[in-house]
Amino acid sequence: MRHATERTRSRMDIIVRHGGNLIPKFDVSVVTHIVTDAQKGPTLRALGLRNLDKIPDHIPTVKWSWIVSCIGATQGDARLNEVWLYAAFSERIDAGIPKFNSTLSRNRTKDNVPDVVNISHISQFTQDGNHLQERNLIDMDDISEFPDPDNLQRSLPRALLDVTKTHDPLEQFYAKAKAELENGSPYHSDSECGSGPDLSRIEFHADMPLAKKGWTCDKRADKIDVCPNQDVIDKLQELMEIHKSRLGEEDRWRAFSYNKCIRILKSYPRRIQSLNEARSLAGVGEKTASKIIEIIETGQLRRIDYENTDDIKVGRLFQGIYGVGQSIAYQWYASGCRTLDDVLSGKGGVKLNPAQEIGLKFYSDINSRMPRDEAKAIFDLIKPIALQLDPGLFVEIMGSFRRGKADCGDIDILITRPTDDGKTHAGILSRLLRELHAAEILTEDLALPENPYDLECIYRGLCHLPKEGSSRRRIDFLTVPWQSRGAALIYYTGDDIFNRAMRMKARVMGYALNQRGLFAGVVRDPHDRSKKLNPGQLIASETEEEIFRILEVPWQEPHQRIRG
């Protein structure tokens, strides 16, 4: 306390005034929460620890904005348990959250799941899906501002001290945010928005329907034909993409916050009319509300011009080249490259691998989305050739096409084969690729499988309609074992947000879900949860329906799985 800044002392006074206790030395038997806005190093030094793993899982590390959000909360209020929304460090985002208790038996096996052989159909209509309403989402533009202690009139409950002992109504919801955090929303997979005490005021108008808390994957995506605030969404999306293009931690969180704000706006049923109305939306604070009104009144957002610096523009340009990620793009920028011609000429010693050379040559084609009809026309040429090689093959088009989207970024084709006649699809991919090259449907290879005779392979390349003037299009072939077809259909249908929610719900329920199937009894490394010490036992994989059923996710056709 003797060395604390005036700002820190004010925060301490607020905590004590509202019923909290300050502990001079970190003691795991006494401490219930760690509140810090500092970086990892200073925080660990203050705690006397070497790494974050030494903090018990039941103690969350939260930012000051969590304290602000709890002003006026009472025992059992959801805000007390929303520690994951205010996590100071991404690797501890699930600390302090009760474990999910599945109503299903942990010993459930594949034998007691009815065999369902139906495969969900590809939507025959186009769809530009919408998003579920969400509440209690933090506005990252606002958390940097410290509230005036004199304006904090309401009290923090003493329940703050044992908050982790209460029921968490969002226990099924936090993992989705973690998945988005770890996969690009706020950053990577293919994962925001406005100050002060207003963080606790995050709810819809009383006359608006409120979405039930839960997992993103648990509710079908209802279609809204027209979004009344689409112009606002487009500008905020542009600003979000700029923050996602940067490497800093702060930009990651801002992108995450804008993503949440955008999803709320997509679900809002009417045109925003005023600053107060904008501020009343979940996750929208003073700054973001001002941005929304600026867009509505002028059609522009000045912040975009401010943030869209030269390195951002050039980095995004370079990342349009196949095989170039964020790190390589910034390396090329640091080497002096500013245009695609600079890259082509090797300015600054830049060298391209064969796939990047192809990506640069067909840059415009690869970065243009194709109409749904074009994707179908290419698939309709490929499928008969595959069935001529083996009539027993299962050949299906996946991705955004299967979800019913009006256009597609690429073409994903899944290939497998029933094994009841003793045969498999081993080796079929290499034969098919030869035939498609001969038919001038495949044009360039970007990535060949190490062993095309494996049952599970991935090929990446370029294709086109075999006629003059047709554009190059990205295409992937995915082969999987027949017994994995259900899990593969889920995995390669998407969308990304839906899949992340499915995987994280499975993980919290004690399972593991990937493109091969649903596994029980998985043992993970406590120091690195991404590593499996025991891969577990396969309990479902052959149909989408059985996986949905075990995870207690209502059945959804592909066009109903659009969340992003």
Automatic annotation (TrEMBL):
It is an enzyme of class 2 (transferase). This is DNA polymerase. It is found in: Nucleus. The active site is at residue 291. SMART domains: POLXc (SM00483). One of its GO terms (molecular function) is DNA binding. Belongs to the DNA polymerase type-X family. DNA polymerase that functions in several pathways of DNA repair. Involved in base excision repair (BER) responsible for repair of lesions that give rise to abasic (AP) sites in DNA. Also contributes to DNA double-strand break repair by non-homologous end joining and homologous recombination. Has both template-dependent and template-independent (terminal transferase) DNA polymerase activities. Has also a 5'-deoxyribose-5-phosphate lyase (dRP lyase) activity. Gene3D superfamilies: 5' to 3' exonuclease, C-terminal subdomain, Beta Polymerase, domain 2, BRCT domain, DNA polymerase beta, N-terminal domain-like, DNA polymerase, thumb domain. Its EC number is 2.7.7.7. The keyword Glycoprotein does not apply. Its main location: nucleus. Pfam families: DNA_pol_B_palm, DNA_pol_B_thumb, DNA_pol_lambd_f, HHH_8. It comes from the Eukaryota. Its cofactor is Mn(2+). CDD domains: NT_POLXc. Residues 1-71 form the BRCT domain. GO terms for cellular component: nucleus. It catalyses: DNA(n) + a 2'-deoxyribonucleoside 5'-triphosphate = DNA(n+1) + diphosphate. One of its GO terms (biological process) is DNA replication.
